[in-house]
Every structure is written in structure tokens, then in C-alpha cells.
Amino acid sequence: MAADRTGQIVVAFISERTGEDAEGYAIAAQAMDALAARQPGYRGIDSVSSGGVGITLSYWADEAAAVAWRNHPEHAETREAGRGRWYKWYRLHVAEIGRSYGWDRG
């Protein structure tokens, strides 16, 4: 069932990985997913990757929750590791969702 995300904050993280330390990346990604899920205001995540390019959308109740995630010490530490090891580049976009709907095949 599709979630109505109207009014939530979406953080879009688009990146290209270096291919270095795939095991370390997988461990860190799993840890960050689990850590984010425990943060106040967390509303979910969608992620896809192909050919080294990935798009991750994280959803937050409000701007304060998204900023708190950005500033979380463990997240900041992992972000620095990503800049040094796992990513060629990344882009981050933050927006409020003005309309949200979905469809599921029955």
C-alpha cells in the first residue's frame, strides 16, 4: 500500500560510487538505514541503484527532523568516510512534498 507523504520533507541523495571497499560500504549503509529508522521524525526510505549510481530518498516529518539527521554524529562520521572512500560525487536535494499518491497492482 502506498504511503501518503504529503507535507513530509524528502531528502534526495543522488550519488556515484567509486567501487572501492564494497564490503565497508554495505556495512555502513545498513548501519545508517537502521540508525535513521530510530530517529524522531523518520518516515521511511526508498532507494535504487544501477551501474554505480544510486538514488536514495529519505522521508522526514519536518525540516527539524531532517536537519537533526544531517547533524547526527554517527551520520556525520559516515558521511566523511563516504567522501574519502565510497563516493566519486553526490548531490543532495531537500524539499517539502506538496502532493503524494500511489497505485498498487492488486
TrEMBL record:
<feature type="domain" description="ABM">
    <location>
        <begin position="9"/>
        <end position="80"/>
    </location>
</feature>
<dbReference type="InterPro" id="IPR007138">
    <property type="entry name" value="ABM_dom"/>
</dbReference>
<protein>
    <submittedName>
        <fullName>Antibiotic biosynthesis monooxygenase</fullName>
        <ecNumber>1.14.-.-</ecNumber>
    </submittedName>
</protein>
<dbReference type="GO" id="GO:0004497">
    <property type="term" value="F:monooxygenase activity"/>
</dbReference>
<dbReference type="InterPro" id="IPR011008">
    <property type="entry name" value="Dimeric_a/b-barrel"/>
</dbReference>
<keyword id="KW-0560">Oxidoreductase</keyword>
<keyword id="KW-0503">Monooxygenase</keyword>
<dbReference type="InterPro" id="IPR052936">
    <property type="entry name" value="Jasmonate_Hydroxylase-like"/>
</dbReference>
<dbReference type="Pfam" id="PF03992">
    <property type="entry name" value="ABM"/>
</dbReference>
